[in-house]
Amino acid sequence: NNTFSRLYLRQNLIVLDEVSSTNDYLKELLSNIKPLAEATAIMASNQTHGRGQRDGIWLSSKDENLTFSFLLFPTNFPSAKSFSLNMMVCLGIQTTLKQYGLDACVKWPNDIYVGNKKLCGVLIENRLTGANIHTSIVGIGINVNQISFPESIAWKTTSLQLESSEMNKVDIKNLCFDLLMNILSIYESHLLMDTTALINKYNDQLFRKDVPAKFLVDGLEKVGIIQGVDEQGLLHVIVDDQLCKYDSKEIAFII
Ligand code: BTN
């Protein structure tokens, strides 16, 4: 009984050859007068100014990978719960990758990893009215058919093709629909629920949970054991026998 059928998504997907950034393109569309439907999506074969988290850039090889963004209009959704959107998106991606035969996990706060390598990144940009999120632009970049990466990043980067036993190339547009279907179904089913179930599912998929892992905290190397996240998206880690809670600016994994 999902609102977002494959047909609905097909009617609301715009496929473009080249844009600066699919997130920025959606922002421009939003500022036009014509209202947009929820789940309107932009997929581009190439981005000239792909953006990443923390003002980083997202480089993606033309035609080989998937870069797309879509719109959500959450109702009565407090911005204090914005991390829930991250969790829904990450879980939707993880579920989709499982359907493609990959055992991926979520590297907090919102990267998707296979083993010790990054496969996918998420950039969510929210617009608020008062204390509520009224529009969320969800951007996803996922390495799909690219099989070689520059030496400087090859040790920490992977793709669907490199990780799967399937020799055939992945159909990028179909993957886009599969991701949208899974993310939107999790979004619809969790929007009105309390966040505990979502947090538990997210924590179940967490990269390096319950094992000693190395981090940089305030420039110092620490070993800690991840316990999970909370509703605010803070990472709970036991460091030196103490439970510490970090936001993503305070702590970084050492891969
Ligand atoms: C990250 O890991 O730093 C997040 C990367 C997000 C990249 C995607 S690609 C589609 C969308 N458009 C952008 O400019 N960025 C996101």
Automatic annotation (TrEMBL):
Gene3D superfamilies the record matches: Bira Bifunctional Protein, Domain 2
All copies of domain BPL/LPL catalytic, residue ranges: 1-191
Designated name of the protein: Biotin/acetyl-CoA-carboxylase ligase
Entry keyword annotation includes Ligase: yes
GO cellular component, one term: cytoplasm
Matches recorded under InterPro entries: aa-tRNA-synth_II/BPL/LPL, Biotin_CoA_COase_ligase, BPL_LPL_catalytic
Pfam families: BPL_LplA_LipB
NCBIfam families, per the entry: birA_ligase
Keywords: Ligase
PANTHER family reported in the protein's UniProt record: BIOTIN PROTEIN LIGASE (PTHR12835), BIOTIN--PROTEIN LIGASE (PTHR12835:SF5)
Statement: the UniProt record of this protein carries the keyword Ligase: yes
Signal peptide positions (record): none
Lineage, top ranks: Bacteria, Pseudomonadati, Bacteroidota, Sphingobacteriia, Sphingobacteriales
GO molecular function, one term: biotin--[biotin carboxyl-carrier protein] ligase activity
